Amino acid sequence: MVVERIIVLAKTYPELSSKHGPLVCVAGVNEYKEWRRLYPIPLKIWINEKYEDIRFRKWDKIEVEVSEKPPPHDRRSESRRVINWKNIRVVGHIKDWETRLAVIKELLDPDIESIINSGRSLGVIKPAKVLDFFSKPRHRLRDEAEKEVLKKMDEADSTVTLLEYLEIGDKYLLPEVREPDVKVEELPWIGYKFYCGNPRCRGHEMMVIDWEAQELFRKYRTVEGPVKQKLFNELVFKRDLYFIVGNTWKYHKSFMIIGLFYPPKGTVPVKPLVPIFKDKPKQKTLFDILQQR
């Protein structure tokens, strides 16, 4: 076990886990600029008042106890198992767009292909051109264990709900995302059609599972109207849009947009006086140890 300090960059819409119940996928970077995928992070953090002191939002800095290496079942090098989520501590927050952009610039990948070729399962890109935001049918077969979880929930007549976003107090959420009793439902396929920065890019159609984007769609049930106005017209034409992307444990070349970053156009990155990242201490070799004796 190690304790890491993570800048939270992405939180996905909750999905049911056959083992842990409703979970939220959380991704970010540690103080050594290493990407991290944290799990399991239970939804109850945001729906149970007794966990209010550990409730965190995007761009919070959190301290969390994690496994030193990825779990055996997950070959993705950035994945870490949270040892005890009740010990999560919020230790800071990056508030201004200028500092946030400085963080993103340090992490920025040139294109999707570069992330795949690097072997990483997480990254961030700035699309060269966004063509559309749209929805399409999602063909997804649940495994038998997950079906059993849903069946038991139905039999108990219990509905998992989220707290109203206003109570969470995240003012950086999209303003339309304001409704109580949000049901945890199967994620619909909503996403962007875009070109990444690769000159040979043939175009990508990538699903968005970012919590605020999915919640906005859940409210209106269509990508037209307010949803497209926010996620396409406003973010593409009035903001500088970046995609935080991640793959799945089963299909390593299949990426989804797990987070959106959208500073106002014209924002200039400003590094803080105290550096956000630092060099990772060099691990001592046997030769180093012998030299000290």
Kindly list the characteristics that best describe this protein:
293 residues; alpha+beta; six-stranded mixed beta sheet; three-stranded antiparallel beta sheet; 8 helices; 16 strands; globular
Explain briefly what this protein structure is.
The chain has 293 residues and is α+β, with helices and mostly antiparallel strands. The chain has helices spanning 44-47, 97-107, 112-118, 144-155, 165-168, 211-220, 226-237, 286-292, and strands at 2-11, 15-17, 21-23, 26-30, 35-39, 60-66, 79-81, 89-93, 122-125, 129-136, 161-162, 182-183, 189-195, 204-207, 242-247, 255-261. The protein has one domain (2-261).
What is the secondary structure topology, with strand pairs?
Layout lengths: L1 E10 L3 E3 L3 E3 L2 E5 L4 E5 L4 H4 L12 E7 L12 E3 L7 E5 L3 H11 L4 H7 L3 E4 L3 E8 L7 H12 L5 E2 L2 H4 L13 E2 L5 E7 L8 E4 L3 H10 L5 H12 L4 E6 L7 E7 L24 H7 L1
Parallel strand pairs: 5-7
Antiparallel strand pairs: 1-4, 1-6, 2-3, 4-5, 6-8, 9-15, 10-13, 11-12, 13-14, 15-16
Number of helices: 8
Structural class designation: alpha+beta
How many E strands? Answer: 16
Distance between the termini: 28 Å
Radius of gyration: 20 Å
Q: Main beta sheet, described?
A: 6 strands, mixed
Low-confidence stretches: 141-182
Residues in β-strands, percent:
25-35%
Strands across the major sheet, in which order? Answer: 7-5-4-1-6-8
Give the averaged pLDDT, no decimals: 84
Share of residues in helices = 10-25%
Taken together, the total number of domains comes to: 1
Give the overall form.
Answer: globular
Q: What order do the SSEs take from the amino end to the carboxyl end, as H and E?
A: EEEEEHEEEHHEEHEHEEEHHEEH
